[in-house]
Specification:
Strands 1, 2, 3, 6, 7 and 8 form a 6-stranded mixed β-sheet that branches. The relative contact order is 0.31. Strand 6, helix 2 and strand 7 form a beta-alpha-beta unit. The protein is an alpha/beta fold and 152 residues long. It has a single domain, classed as D-tyrosyl-trna(Tyr) Deacylase, Chain: A (3-Layer(bba) Sandwich), CATH 3.50.80.10. Helix content is 18%, strand content 39%. Helix 1 runs parallel beside helix 2.
Length: 152
């Protein structure tokens, strides 16, 4: 599982030209589910991300979690994070898990993140062509790989 976390002042997902989901201050998480991922990988990713202290405290140090600052979550499925770019110029998406199992794990991630943090989790529309609006705060971007395949 690969995740790109972006600390944002606001974020939104547009589908077919209309806002599907939007958040204010918080985290936009782009989530790629790999073919090797399991429910245990989802649980490990949620454990890692929940409570991650990547927001500034009063001294300007990253010492507060999204929950500490009252932040929101927007999780967007992004299979392209699982691309294998090791050969040639064209990405291979073989490492990405295929639907419907990838959708099940994506939804499990969002549900477990909400349960672990006590915060609502908004989502993109799985499988849709989306425009993702990210107003990166900092900028602060973090990449997490849990149980990742070695070819990516």
């Amino acid at each position: 599982m690969r995740a790109v976390l972006q600390r944002v002042t606001r974020g939104a997902v547009h589908v077919d030209g209309a806002v599907h989901a939007a958040i204010g201050r918080g985290l936009v998480i782009l989530l790629g589910v790999e073919a090797v991922d399991t429910d245990a990988v989802v649980a490990a990713a949620v454990k890692k991300i929940a409570g991650l202290r990547i927001f500034d405290d009063d001294a300007g140090r990253m010492n507060r979690s999204n929950e500490d600052v009252g932040g929101e979550y927007l999780v967007v499925s992004q299979f392209t994070l699982c691309a294998d770019l090791s050969r040639g110029k064209r990405p291979s998406f073989d490492p990405a898990m295929k639907p419907p199992e990838s959708e099940r794990l994506y939804l499990a991630f969002t549900e477990q993140l909400g349960a672990a943090t006590g915060r609502p989790v908004k989502t993109g529309r799985f499988g849709a062509s989306m425009t993702v609006e990210i107003h990166n705060d900092g900028p602060a971007t973090f990449v997490i790989g849990i149980g990742c395949s070695p070819t990516a």
